[in-house]
Amino acid sequence: MAGRVAIAQGLKLGLLALLDAAAVWAAISLLLRGDLLPLALLAAGALLLNYVVLSRRAYPLRFLLPGLVFLFAMVVYPIGYTVNVSLTNLQTGNLLTKVQVIAQLEGRYYLPPESETFSYWAFRNPQGELRVTLLAEDGCSYLSEGSTLVPVDLTDPRFVRGPDGTVVAFDDFSRLSLAEIYRSLPALERLDLTWEGVHVRLATIREFRTYLRKYEYLRDADAIRDLETGVVYTAREGYFTSPDGVRIEPGFQIYVGFRNYLDVLTNPGIRADFSRVFGWTVAWSFLTVFFSFWVGLVLAYLLNDPYVRGRFFYRSLLIIPYAMPAFISALVWAGLFNTDLGVINRIIGALFGTKVRWLQDPFWARTALIFINVWLTYPYMMIVSLGALQSIPKEMYEAARVDGATGWQRFWTITMPLLWVSVAPLLIGSFAFTFNNFTIIWLVTAGRPAVLGAATPAGATDILISWTYRLAFEGDRGNQLGLASAVSIIIFIIIATISAVNFRFTRALEDVSRGV
Hints:
Elements: H1 2-33, H2 36-54, H3 61-86, H4 98-106, E1 109-110, E2 117-124, E3 130-136, E4 141-145, E5 148-152, E6 159-161, E7 167-170, E8 173-175, H5 178-183, H6 185-190, E9 193-195, E10 198-204, E11 207-213, E12 215-218, E13 223-226, E14 232-236, E15 239-241, E16 247-248, H7 259-266, H8 268-303, H9 311-318, H10 320-323, H11 326-336, H12 343-352, H13 362-390, H14 394-402, H15 407-435, H16 438-444, H17 464-473, H18 481-513
Antiparallel strand pairs: 1-11, 2-3, 2-8, 2-11, 3-4, 4-5, 6-7, 7-8, 9-10, 10-11, 12-13, 13-14, 14-15, 15-16
Helix pairs in contact: 1-2, 3-18, 7-8, 7-18, 8-13, 8-15, 11-16, 13-15, 15-18, 17-18
C-alpha cells in the first residue's frame, strides 16, 4: 500500500514538474514578445497550481480548481474579452495595433522618377541561401551580402562563366533558371538591399530598381510624415490623418469608450435596425413559445386520457420531431418551403393555382420560421405538460365533478393553476433559449430577405444574435467587430434580466404552491 502511495506521489510531482517546465518556457516566450498581461496570468496560474498541489491547507481546492478553470476559460474570459472589444473600434481597417501599423507603413517604399534599373542573376547554394548579382546600366556589378550590395568584378575567377559568357556559378552557388526564379519569387520580393542610401528591390521578374522609403514615424508628434510629398498625418480616431482629412490605410485599434453602445441607441440608421430586429426577436420568441406550449398542452391533455386507444403509439409518433437533430430538420423544412421546388408550394399550386413566396417575402418567411420552430419544440412542451398533468391528484377532479363542475371549469380552475406552477419557469427558460436560437434562423433564411434602406446588414428575419453575426462578418463596411460585441453585451444583459425574472418568478410560484 505504501509503495502505491509513493508511486502516485511521484507521478503527481513528475506531472507537476512537466507543467512547471512548460510554464517557464511559455513565460520566457511571452517575456521576449512583451506580452505582460498573459505573462502575469500564466505566472498566477502556475503559482496557484503549485500551491493547490503541494499545500495540505489547499486540499479542498483540488476538487474546485478544475471547475474554476473551466468557468474562467469558458465564461469569465469570453465575457471579459467581448466587453473589451466592445469598447474599441475593432473592425475591417482597424484590426492591427498602432505599433504594427507603424511598422507596416515604415516598410512601404515608392519609386522615384530618377530610379536606377538593374538586371540581375539569382543564385542559390545547397543550404538554400539566396543571393543575387546586379548589373547596373553603367556596367558596374554588385553582389548581395546580407542586406547590402557590394561591388564585385565578374571577371574574378571565382565567378564561373558558361558557354554564352554569363556567370552560371560562384563559390557553391548555382544560378537559377527562369522557372526556378518564378518559384523563388516570394523570397526575391522579400529582399531589401541597401545601396548608396537607397533601397534596391525587385520591380519585375527581370529587374531590380532603386526605391525610397515612403513614410517616417515622428515619435514626438505621434504622426507619420510622407517622405514623397512632405504631408504630415497625425494620429486621430484610429487613423493617421492629414490636415485635410485624408486617411492612411490601414488604421489601428483604439479604445472608443461607449461609442458603440451609443451608436446602437442614438445613430438613426443603427437604432432603426436594432429596434426592428429587437421587435421581431421578441415576437419570434413569444409566438414560438405560445404556440408550441398550447399545441403541446392540447396533445398532452388528450394523451393523458386513459380512454384514448393507442395513446402510447401516438406518443411515439409525436415525439419524432424532438428526437431528430434540429439542424437536419431545419434544412429539410427549408427545402420543403422552397418557392419553386418545395413540396408545400406544389400542393398549394395544385389546390389554388398560385405560389407563396415563403422565403422571399418577409411576412411568409417569418410565418415559415415560426411554424418550423413550433414543429421542433412542441414535443418538449408535450412531455413537460404530460408529466405535470400526471402529477395532479385525480381526487381533485373527482371532487370537482361531484360539485358539478364542467370540463372547462375543471381545466381552468384545477389543471391550469397547478400546471402553471411546474411549467411557467420552463416557459421563461424556453423564451430565453428561443431569443438566441441562431441555428434555425441561419439554416432556413440566414436572416433574409434583405431590407431595403437598412443601414446595417439586418434582414427581415434576423434576430439579435444572427444580426450580431452578420455585423461581425458580413457588414457593408467590413467586419464591425466592436459594434457586434456591443450588441452581444446588450443581448447578454437582456438574457440575464430574463433569467433573473425567471428565478424570482420560480420562487413566487413555489411560495404559492406551498400556500405561503
